[in-house]
């Protein structure tokens, strides 16, 4: 035992590891993010977290080249190439890439929402959803656009905003083919098609509310 203690005392790397390990017992989180105030037990976790605010994406997939701000994001993404989903729900059999996703998924069966906001009482099934929700109360906007500097309280809003710079419009209307930068804008647009039948078959004259349906219909004439 004495020999082991001597080795630890002489090795800076081992001393650092021991100090970090002890924090797992005390639940102490001495490393604080100066942007949003979130705390961590390890300095490396804080460094990884900060990339969320800066927009830096240091972890790149060697298969498709896509980059991520956190290593866990890259690990999760890689499984999309392999198709591997090793974690299965024992209630419905649905499979997932990550173990934590099984836990959150199970709440859809039980209706359980264990994470509650201490300000308004609203409950969530996922801890990250609660954290994001609290920014609404505090007015914090920890998610910054690395192009123009505009800040947002919700990460999803930052993602939508960035598309104004890139021009990306991933949500396409299956009625007319028009594309949008957000799902909300697409849903709003779709309401304009309600009851509308603007696409007519030039063979039989039958009308449809979407281009896709007209294309499918024309197959009966061929």
Characterization of this structure:
It is found in: Nucleus. By secondary structure, the protein is an alpha+beta fold. It has nine helices and 14 strands. Among the domains are: 38-84, Double Stranded RNA Binding Domain; 92-140, Double Stranded RNA Binding Domain, CATH 3.30.160. 45% of the residues lie in helices and 13% in strands. A hairpin with a 6-residue loop joins strand 3 (59-60) and strand 4.
Low-confidence stretches are 1-9
> Rg, please?
25 Å
Strand content: 5-15%
Question: How are the strands of the largest sheet arranged?
Answer: 1-2
Shape, per Cα inertia axes = elongated
Mind telling me which CATH architecture of the domain at 92-140 this is?
Answer: 2-Layer Sandwich
Instruction: Give me the count of strands.
Output: 14
Proportion in helices: 40-55%
Mean pLDDT: 79
Task: Write out key terms for the chains shown.
single chain, about 220 residues, alpha+beta, Double Stranded RNA Binding Domain, two-stranded antiparallel sheet, two-stranded antiparallel ribbon, 14 strands, about 45% helix, disordered N terminus
Topology:
Elements (H helix, E strand, L loop, with lengths): L1 H9 L1 H15 L4 E2 L6 E2 L2 H12 L4 E2 L6 E2 L2 H12 L4 E2 L6 E2 L2 H12 L4 E2 L6 E2 L2 H12 L4 E2 L6 E2 L2 H12 L4 E2 L6 E2 L2 H8 L8 E2 L6 E2 L2 H8 L4
Antiparallel strand pairs: 1-2, 3-4, 5-6, 7-8, 9-10, 11-12, 13-14
Helix pairs in contact: 1-2
Keywords: Metal-binding, Nucleus, Repeat, Zinc, Zinc-finger
Family: Belongs to the krueppel C2H2-type zinc-finger protein family.
Organism: Octopus sinensis
């Amino acid at each position: 035992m004495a020999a082991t203690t001597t080795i630890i005392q002489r090795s800076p790397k081992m001393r650092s590891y021991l100090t970090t390990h002890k924090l797992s017992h005390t639940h102490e989180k001495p490393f604080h993010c100066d942007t949003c105030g979130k705390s961590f037990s390890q300095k490396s976790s804080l460094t990884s977290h900060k990339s969320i605010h800066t927009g830096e994406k240091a972890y790149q997939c060697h298969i498709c080249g896509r980059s991520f701000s956190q290593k866990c994001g890259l690990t999760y993404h890689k499984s999309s190439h392999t198709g591997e989903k090793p974690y299965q729900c024992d209630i419905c059999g649905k499979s997932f890439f990550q173990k934590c996703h099984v836990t959150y998924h199970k709440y859809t069966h039980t209706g359980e929402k264990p994470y509650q906001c201490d300000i308004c009482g609203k409950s969530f099934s996922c801890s990250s959803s609660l954290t994001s929700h609290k920014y609404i109360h505090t007015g914090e906007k920890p998610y910054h656009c690395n192009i123009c500097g505009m800040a947002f309280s919700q990460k999803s809003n930052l993602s939508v905003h960035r598309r104004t710079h890139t021009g990306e419009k991933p949500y396409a209307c299956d009625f007319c083919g028009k594309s949008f930068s957000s799902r909300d804008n697409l849903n709003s647009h779709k309401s304009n098609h309600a009851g509308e039948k603007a696409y007519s078959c030039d063979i039989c004259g039958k009308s449809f509310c979407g281009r896709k349906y007209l294309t499918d219909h024309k197959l009966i004439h061929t």
